[in-house]
Amino acid sequence: MKLNERSLAFYATCDAPADNEGFLYKKGGRHAAYHRRWFVLRGNMLFYFEDAASREPVGVIILEGCTVELVEAAEEFAFAVRFAGARARTYVLAAESQAAMEGWVKALSRASFDYLRLVVRELERQLEAVRSGGAAPPRRPRALPPKENGCAVWSAEPAAAAAPAGATPGSRPGPEPPPLPPRRRASAPNGPLDSASFAQLHEWRCSGHVPKEDLNIPGA
Q1: Contact indicator for 14, 33 with CB cutoff of 8 Å
Q2: Whether residue 46 has pLDDT greater than 90
Q3: Which in 70, 92, 165, 196 has the greatest CB count within 10 A?
Q4: What PANTHER family is this protein classified in (predicted)?
């Protein structure tokens, strides 16, 4: 694949979020001096600039077929990006803190397509193990809960086995109400008041006379 400077510069400075970015000290190829550069990691490409405001990268490192390892160097928090081969170049970098060094080593170690290929293979192996093991299918979502005042109300309590008699749908469980008092049974028409006419009732009311049978006085 051919890479041109314009496409690399556009990719290095595009608005998409970078995988990692920050200042690192880069050791020169021919000289032992370290230069502070602004590094931007995008995919498997590590760009470095003169400073954070630069719009054109000074160089790029393709992170394929390499290893990232800690090294002892003049600068503290140093690590190296080492490529296989007798004539391959080794890039020695140094971070400004222990946390920054660990973050860069982790990000660079996961940037290559070789690492992604290993991750995909491991996920495929796990998926095949799940399929061969006859795992249970995913549970179906429960029915929608009842609504109160237009809002759904979820409850972590298990549903009751059976709703009590007379309960309204959607009512919440609570203490059982006291039993209703027994109804008063209508008396049979066996007294004079029950069989008297309106005129007789009016006459008895005006005279104050009530038959003894309706007073329910024992022994009367």
Answers
A1: no
A2: yes
A3: 92
A4: SESQUIPEDALIAN, SESQUIPEDALIAN-1
Contact in structure between 80 and 67 (CB atoms under 8 Å): no
In angstroms, the CA 40 to CA 43 distance is 10
Q: DSSP label at 176?
A: P
What tokens were used for 116?
Answer: 């992604």
Return the closest-CA partner of residue 159 out of 173, 149, 141, 148. Answer: 173
pTM of structure: 0.54
- Asked whether the beta carbons of 39 and 23 are under 8 A apart, the reply is yes
Tally of CB atoms within 10 A around 24: 25
Distance, in Å, from the CA atom of 192 to the CA atom of 172, rounded to the nearest integer, reads 52
Residues 6+ apart with CB under 8 A from 109: 68, 115
Condensed to tens digits (0 to 9), the pLDDT of residues 87-137 reads 888 999 999 999 999 999 999 999 988 888 888 899 999 999 898 885 544
Give the tokens for residue 75: 């600068």
Q: How far apart are CA 109 and CA 14, in angstroms?
A: 23
pLDDT per position as a tens digit, 162-189? 445 555 555 555 555 555 555 544 444 4
Q: What is the pLDDT of residue 65?
A: 87
Contact 50, 43 (CB under 8 A): no
Distance CA 83, CA 90 (A): 6
Q: Which residue has the higher pLDDT, 162 or 153?
A: 162
